[in-house]
Amino acid sequence: MPEWLRRFLLIDLIQGMLVTFRTQHPKYINTEQYPEERPRVAERYRGAPRLNINPENGETLCIACDLCAIACPENLIVVGSVRNPETRRKELTTFTYDLSRCMFCGLCEDACPVDALELTQDFELASFTREGQIWDRQMLEEGPRPSPYR
Amino acid sequence: MADTFLDAQELVLNMGPQHPSTHGVLRVILKLDGEKVLGTECVIGYLHRGVEKIAEHRTYAQFAPYVDRMDYISAVSNGLGYCLAVEKLLNAEAPPRARAVRVILTELNRIASHLLWLGTHALDIGAITPLFYTFREREEILAIFENYCGARLTTHAFRIGGLQYETYSGFEEQVKRFCDTFPAHVDEYETLLTGNPIWRDRLIGVGLLTAEQCKDYGVTGPVLRAAGVAWDLRKAQPYSGYEQYEFEVPTRSGGDTYDRYLVRIEEMRQSVRIIRQAVERIPEGAIMAKGMKVIKPPVGEAYVSIEAPKGELGYFIVSDGSIHPYRVRVRPPSFLNLQALEVMAKGSLVADVVAIIGTIDIVLGEVDR
Ligand code: SF4
Ligand code: SF4
User: Could you say which of A117, B90, B278, B366 is the most buried, measured as most Cβ atoms within 10 Å of its Cβ?
Assistant: First the structure.
């Protein structure tokens, strides 16, 4: 077909419109209704951190080896520990994780020798204050506490 | 000035830094005579984070997540370039399985980057529809990334010496399914745009850049190939096992915005071809080279460049024998391609400047670093 006839009959325009109309069918809807329908994130998703505890006795799995804090590029993990004089092992006392500076690279998770620190599938991390972004040991073990708006 | 119209005065106008079509925080100072552009000047640096300086205070492994944040549209390519550079310093090589998976993910990333470019570029020109379709397909790619490494945009998918994560079950199927459906979608974009009279009128002959000018300014990537130079680092100096795959380097001779559009469309098709070949035969075996627990390269320097979606992406690393790099220098494709804006925009209309900025395909995170 000569170019001028194509132009005159608006062939290209009509073909484009056809593509648009074909995708009007309800089975092609791709929009996620987010707050109503929660998306399913991947199994390996790197989201909110969690400090795993032994489900049987509730003790932390962390051996306070400090490897995660060394591996982190942003230096945002602080591991506090005391040496138990009887068993001569280090025991975890505090664990702070500054989520506001975390870039979820996963290096801390990879470094942990006992899989105590884990990045979970939880992706809703908003909080009203900056302090609310600094997670302590209790929050890391039990999940975030809801923070009211002041 | 001789070429001003009658007694009209030269008008200086700021475009950006908060302009929707500058794709980030780019400020372009336009010198105008009415609608005609007499000259442009780019002001960059609004997104400067000092990434190269940060590298000097991080270990080699710790710096890897930062490179994702330069060109965040093609984070996987950035990661590959950095890992290859450090591996060259270490004189190590990733195992074959890791290389094949790297090729698959990088090519998927090239498609994702071109899709985002196509959607936003069409949006700048005034075609809204393609954006929704390109993002629909980009979503499938991001789902593969998320399943593989747990992040969608700043993936941190590769580690120095290979891969951290083994492929998930169903990886091959998901990639193959994408390869089967995607070429039909590319045809869809072409139906919407290639023949469209408005699209053609807005793009043909706009932002001309000859091969000579490309070489003068160090412009690489699709912009160079649209000017007729078949220069692709995947062919010219193959890395990560690209020599095993059959593909063509699409070129055009016009060097205008329309040709650059066609080159990128064809590149997406070629990427699908590479992914198909790679996913058919992912070798078995280890995914991590031996001895990568502590990364402490010998004294020396290395430069590795790869073909990122936007052009030649190079990493120059100097090692002083410690666990921290002494110096990391990045050769970002967007930064050098942006230099050509001045020649491309001179003499065009204001509305074409938007098209020209779009066609260079810049990411300001990479320009400013
Ligand atoms: S995910 Fe990365 S940035 Fe965040 S705490 Fe772990 S190592 Fe640090
Ligand atoms: S690396 Fe694991 S075990 Fe060691 S301090 Fe961190 S969380 Fe605890």
Answer: B366
User: d(Cα A90, Cα A88) in Å, to the nearest integer?
Assistant: 7
* Confidence band for B113, pLDDT divided at 50, 70 and 90: very high
Q: Do A42 and B147 count as a contact with CB atoms less than 8 A apart?
A: yes
- Tell me the ligand closest to A69's alpha carbon: 2
Cα B58 to its chain centre, rounded Å, is 25
**Nearest protein Cα to ligand 2, atom 7:** A117
Ligand 2: lining residues by beta carbon, under 6 Å = A 62-68, 79, 111-112, 114, 116-117
Q: Residue B290 burial by CB count (10 A; 0-12/13-18/19+): exposed, middle or buried?
A: exposed
Domain ranges for chain A: 1-30, 49-142
The answer to whether residue B43 is domain-embedded is: no
**Region B346-363: what's the mean pLDDT?**
86
- B203: tokens are 């793009």
Nearest atom within ligand 1 for CA of residue A46: 1
How near does any CA of chain B get to the CA of A150, in Å? 32
- Domain range for B260 is 50-368
Tens digit of pLDDT for each residue in A57-110?
Answer: 878 888 888 888 888 998 888 888 888 888 777 888 888 888 888 888 888 888
Q: Hey, what CATH class is A49-142 in?
A: alpha beta
What local confidence, expressed as pLDDT, does residue B114 receive?
92
Phi and psi torsions of B4, nearest 5°: -75, 155
Count of structural domains within chain B: 1
CB contact under 8 A, A43 and B195: no
